[in-house]
């Protein structure tokens, strides 16, 4: 039997029979259009004229000087329309949905970035849109909930399970099994059943396609280190993809270590997780010895997920990418650091990558180069960080 | 012929699902015995999973109640072993791929044989991924039940040809749960299954009333009921064995009317 969508042993299609036709239809549609000149042109045009691509590769001179080590470049996905990398995938998938004749899209969201991107693309392309978001996240990201509603989406607050991203995925999958004919599930990360990990990676790979050209233009050579934060792993996969064959480029994914690995309150899947089958894929998951999925924690709603995309699991297995844990405290410090040193407020998710850069850049040589993927902007997090610092602001 | 076929010795069968450990394993044991005394032909025992993506709220909440009480796969095996001293009808486990995978596939199915579990139903293992478990299950005489959904008309023949035990025909789109009306054209799906397979067909998802059960048994070979029973258990708690038994008797009688 053909084993579809595998990355080493990871990936696959572990979903209810009711959804099989939908993923087969998606796979066939994607195969048909991914190299279709019309489709590629339409998406490129949208990315350019609507999303604002290419995004800048910014040389962080002050941060470089302050840390005293590697030359630091920042890939500014925060400057995209809607404020994060999520728009790259949302536009691509909604174009595919249109090709499939769908009139309605549904999506899960953690921090709300993917929900906002999907709601935006749906509004722009005239599609009905419903977003599922854990209740804990609708509470801590209220501004994004209102933003999605403003864009015409209906937002469902998910009260099952841990009321975070994993439960939002559960509920979106359930919704999809109820209504398939006119509905496409715009999965937001490089996870879930085949073909989603491949489709989302391809749509996000524009990040490294640009970054590779930009760094060659700026420095005449490839970087030594490329870094990104990892929840499900979409900005990291997009940032890594075009560097995978450049064997001398170190790829580093930064996972959420929450209150610290030793406390058990974290979402560091590759640091502590074990192999499993969940959300349509074989990969690594935070779980107990019976395979019950663990209630994970992170200050960042976007990284608060107990699994990781199957291609990351594979890159981890073969040692091509490294995955490191970064705590809440470190991420909040980095959030403030980048704001003050570079005048750039990063998303708390992206701040996890910035935090690790702060740790390793000083140990690198001055002629070495590092690129950090700044997956999103931090406006949505300002109130939550203020509260973390004991200042009572509500958005 | 596997033990699962015993369930269909009277031509038509009533299949019941309950979540193991809801409200606790002692009560589950009593509910099983009560259902057997009232004529159930096959029991699907759910091993609760933290994230049951194919379930509606009724069974999801039962899973949460069970897990909150400390139910584990090992404790369920122990309970089945005890209940098997009194219960001899075919029994199946219904659960999610991760629980088997993490427990260890070989160990899981060896234990199934040991406690006489005869089939396994895994909603998140479709036809394309069944190699993940099939050989391990069959090695220990456990049938792997295939699900067929109303979205899979082109897939029905392919799935039916390789089906084991019985075929679980999902009545309608969506997750498990009670429905007032079932609109799917089940007759034409059953026809294609019959052309490709001799094994019995059970219809599930949304069946709650005796009328629906009779109709399912007329269309196919068995009615499968889960959420309606789980709702009774949620309502009566430790007192559920009696009311569940009465309900099973009513449903079994309806199914037997289809045999005439």
Provide a short characterization of the protein structure:
The complex is a heterodimer of chains A (395) and B (260). With 395 residues, chain A is α/β, with parallel strands linked by helices.
Which key terms come to mind for this protein?
heterodimer; A: 395 residues; Rossmann fold; six-stranded mixed sheet; four-stranded antiparallel sheet; 14 strands; B: 260 residues; TIM Barrel; eight-stranded parallel barrel; 11 helices; 14% strand; globular
Describe this structure in words.
Chain A: Keywords: Amino-acid biosynthesis, Aromatic amino acid biosynthesis, Lyase, Pyridoxal phosphate, Tryptophan biosynthesis. The complex is a heterodimer of chains A (395) and B (260). With 395 residues, chain A is of the alpha/beta class. Chain A has helices at residues 17-33, 37-49, 61-67, 86-99, 113-124, 135-140, 142-150, 165-178, 196-204, 206-219, 234-240, 269-272, 310-317, 328-342, 348-360, 382-388; strands at 6-7, 10-14, 57-59, 71-76, 104-109, 128-134, 154-158, 183-185, 225-229, 250-258, 274-278, 280-285, 321-327, 369-374. Chain A has a 6-stranded mixed sheet, sandwiched between helices. Chain A folds into 2 domains: 14-47 and 86-196, Rossmann fold, CATH 3.40.50; 52-83 and 205-389, Rossmann fold (3-Layer(aba) Sandwich). The longest helix of chain A is centred in the first third of the chain and has 17 residues, at 17-33. Chain B is an alpha/beta fold. Chain B has a single domain (12-258), classed as TIM Barrel (Alpha-Beta Barrel). Chain B has 11 helices and 8 strands. Chain B has helices at residues 25-37, 57-68, 73-83, 97-103, 105-115, 134-139, 156-161, 186-196, 210-219, 227-236, 241-259; strands at 13-19, 42-46, 91-94, 119-121, 143-148, 167-170, 201-204, 222-225. The longest helix of chain B is centred in the C-terminal third of the chain and has 19 residues, at 241-259. The interface between A and B is large, with 40 and 44 residues.
């Amino acid at each position: 039997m053909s084993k579809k969508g595998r990355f080493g042993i990871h990936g696959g299609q572990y979903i209810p029979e009711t959804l099989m036709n939908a993923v087969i239809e998606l796979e066939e549609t994607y195969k048909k259009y991914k190299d279709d000149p019309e489709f590629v042109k339409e998406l490129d045009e949208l990315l350019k004229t609507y999303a604002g691509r290419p995004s800048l590769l910014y040389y962080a001179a002050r941060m470089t000087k302050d840390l005293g080590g590697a030359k630091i470049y920042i890939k500014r996905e925060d400057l995209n329309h809607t404020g994060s990398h999520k728009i790259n995938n949302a536009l691509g998938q909604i174009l595919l949905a249109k090709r499939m004749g769908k009139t309605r899209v549904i999506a899960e969201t953690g921090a709300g970035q993917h929900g906002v991107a999907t709601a935006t693309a749906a509004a722009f392309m005239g599609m009905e849109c419903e977003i599922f978001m854990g209740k804990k996240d609708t509470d801590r990201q209220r501004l994004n909930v209102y933003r999605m509603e403003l864009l015409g989406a209906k937002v469902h607050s998910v009260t099952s399970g841990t009321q975070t991203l994993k439960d939002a995925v559960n509920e979106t999958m359930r919704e999809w099994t109820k209504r398939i004919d006119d509905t496409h599930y715009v999965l937001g990360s490089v996870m879930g059943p085949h073909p989603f990990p491949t489709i989302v990676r391809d749509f996000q790979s524009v990040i490294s396609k640009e970054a590779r050209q930009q760094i060659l233009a700026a420095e005449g050579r490839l970087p030594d280190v490329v870094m990104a934060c990892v929840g499900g792993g979409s900005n990291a996969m997009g940032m890594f993809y075009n560097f995978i064959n450049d064997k001398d480029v170190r790829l580093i994914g930064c996972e959420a270590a929450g209150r610290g690995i030793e406390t058990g309150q974290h979402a560091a899947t590759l640091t502590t997780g074990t192999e499993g089958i969940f959300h349509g894929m074989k990969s690594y998951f935070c779980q107990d010895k019976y395979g019950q999925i663990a209630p994970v924690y992170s200050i960042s709603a976007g990284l608060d997920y107990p699994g990781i995309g199957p291609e990351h699991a594979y890159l981890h297995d073969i040692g091509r990418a490294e995955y490191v844990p970064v705590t809440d405290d470190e991420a909040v410090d980095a959030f403030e650091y980048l704001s003050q040193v570079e005048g750039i407020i990063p998303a708390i998710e992206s701040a996890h990558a910035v935090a690790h850069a702060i740790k390793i850049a000083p140990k690198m040589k001055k002629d070495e180069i590092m690129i950090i993927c700044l997956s999103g902007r931090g406006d949505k997090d300002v109130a939550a960080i203020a509260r973390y610092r004991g200042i009572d602001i509500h958005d | 012929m596997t033990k699962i076929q015993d369930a269909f010795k009277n031509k038509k069968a009533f299949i019941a699902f309950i979540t193991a450990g809801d409200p606790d394993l002692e009560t589950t044991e009593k509910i099983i015995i009560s259902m057997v005394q009232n004529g159930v032909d096959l029991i699907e025992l759910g091993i609760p999973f933290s994230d049951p993506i194919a379930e509606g709220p009724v069974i999801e909440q039962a899973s949460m109640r069970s897990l909150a009480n400390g139910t584990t796969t090992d404790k369920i095996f122990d309970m089945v072993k005890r209940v098997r001293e009194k219960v001899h009808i075919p029994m199946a486990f219904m659960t999610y791929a991760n629980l088997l995978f993490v427990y260890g596939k070989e160990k899981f199915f060896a234990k199934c044989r040991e406690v006489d579990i005869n089939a396994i139903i895994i909603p998140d293992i479709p036809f394309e991924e069944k190699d993940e478990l099939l050989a391990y299950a069959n090695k220990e005489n456990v049938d792997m039940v295939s699900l067929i959904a109303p979205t899979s008309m082109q897939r029905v023949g392919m799935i039916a040809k390789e089906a084991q035990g019985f075929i679980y025909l999902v009545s309608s789109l969506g997750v498990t749960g009670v429905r007032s009306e079932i609109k799917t054209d089940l007759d034409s799906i059953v026809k294609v299954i019959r052309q490709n397979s001799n094994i019995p067909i059970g219809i599930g998802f949304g069946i709650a009333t005796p009328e629906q059960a009779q109709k399912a048994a007329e269309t196919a070979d068995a009615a499968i009921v889960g959420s309606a029973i789980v709702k009774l258990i949620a309502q009566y708690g430790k007192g559920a064995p009696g009311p569940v038994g009465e309900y099973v008797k009513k449903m079994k009688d309806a199914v037997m009317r289809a045999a005439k």
